[in-house]
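Async update (no meeting this week)

Hi team, since we skipped the sync, here's where things stand on the single-chain job. The sequence we agreed to prioritize is pasted below, unchanged from the tracker. I ran it this morning and attached the output directly underneath so nobody has to dig for it. Comments welcome in thread, and please keep replies under the output.
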Amino acid sequence: LRYTWGQGSFWKLGLERDVDVWYPEQVRDLTYVKKLAFGFSHSMALTHNGKIFVWGANENGCLGIG
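Output:
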């Protein structure tokens, strides 16, 4: 299980909405995670099978999706 909370602008908490969350809330559909990384306005997850998921603000291309 993965949980997130805090200031949630740019959807950086991995939830399906752009809100602040002050109590731990489960991040759904994020399973088999090996590593997590966080930036100021974005987040990333590496799964056990090598897939990379990114979300949040794509300022200066920090998400690597163009």
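Quick observations from my side:
The longest strand covers residues 21-26.
The chain has a mean pLDDT of 82.
Reply here if anything looks off.
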